[in-house]
Design brief:
CATH topology of the largest domain: 2-enoyl-CoA Hydratase, Chain A, domain 1
Shape: globular
Number of strands: 9
Helix content: 40-55%
Largest sheet: 6 strands, mixed
Strand order of the largest sheet: 1-2-3-4-6-9
Order of helices and strands: EEHEHEEHEEHHEHEHHHH
CATH class of the largest domain: Alpha Beta
CATH superfamily of the largest domain: 2-enoyl-CoA Hydratase, Chain A, domain 1
Radius of gyration: 19 Å
């Protein structure tokens, strides 16, 4: 059996591919472990300055593999699994100080939709979709899906989407702000990699700081956020890229950022 998560790099971009196409990349323990390991690699590799995550085959991720729990598991044990496995996984997307682009091919359903929304940026086609499938089998959202969706579209629209159990196709996702770009099906991954290569040329440290600031601002007030921004800015004040950016501005040339 091959690896359930593939990891490759090209020109400063890490490409993470969910690789259970026969199960539409449904989430099992191997997939969770593989994504965690891949994000750790990307975080630790100083040559990697942007990440693309996508799914092999016809779909991005079909949600949780229902065979994971087996038959002799209590509701409380299932609860603990969701907390102990999904929470650190989704938090890793936000704590990683490099941009993550989701190349959402096909459908991202259930916790797969949470993984898609945990990416910083998304590219879809008009045939791609997000599906809050939980309601269709008698479940509420998990994996942070309710938090992620409501902060993208607001409470009422998020609630409507979550209880409808219907696919939100690419063009509607674009209108709602759930995806950044809509491209042709065959171009999703290539466009994501191209965008990631553009981000590789930017000051990676500053991108990481911006990501921290945005995430912090979603659950804190203005005054706390101003103080947090100032604290994070210390690292930028000491960076090579700030010196290069200022020098390039004075010399009226394009800066050559090194991500440090």
């Amino acid at each position: 059996m091959g690896k359930v998560v593939l990891y490759n790099t090209t020109e400063g971009v890490a490409i993470i591919t969910l690789n259970r196409p026969e199960r539409y990349n449904a989430v099992n323990q191997g997939l969770i472990d593989g994504i965690n390991e891949s994000l750790d690699k990307a975080s630790e590799d100083k040559h990697v300055r942007a990440i693309v995550i996508t799914g092999a085959g016809k779909g991005f991720c079909a949600g949780a593999d229902m065979s994971v729990f087996g038959t002799n598991v209590t509701p409380e044990q299932r609860r603990d699994y969701l907390i102990n496995q999904y929470r650190p996984l989704i938090n890793k997307f936000y704590s990683l100080k490099k941009p993550i682009i989701g190349a959402i091919n096909g459908t991202a359903a259930g916790v797969g939709a949470a993984i898609a929304l945990a990416c910083d940026l998304r590219i879809m086609s008009e045939n791609s979709s997000l599906l809050f499938a939980f309601i269709n089998i008698g479940l509420g959202p998990d994996g942070g899906a309710s938090w992620l969706l409501s902060r993208q579209v607001g409470y009422s629209k998020a609630f409507e989407i979550a209880i409808s159990g219907k696919k939100i196709l690419g063009n509607e996702c674009k209108e709602l702000g759930l995806t950044n770009r809509v491209v042709q099906d065959q171009n999703i991954v290539d466009e994501a990699i191209s965008w990631a290569k553009e981000l590789v040329q930017k000051p990676t440290l500053a991108i990481g700081i911006t990501k921290q600031d945005m995430f912090y601002s979603m659950t804190n007030d203005l005054n706390e956020t101003i103080a947090f921004e100032a604290k994070c800015q210390v690292a930028a004040f000491n960076s090579y890229d700030l010196k290069e950016g200022v020098t390039a501005f004075i010399e009226k040339r394009k800066p050559k950022f090194k991500g440090k």
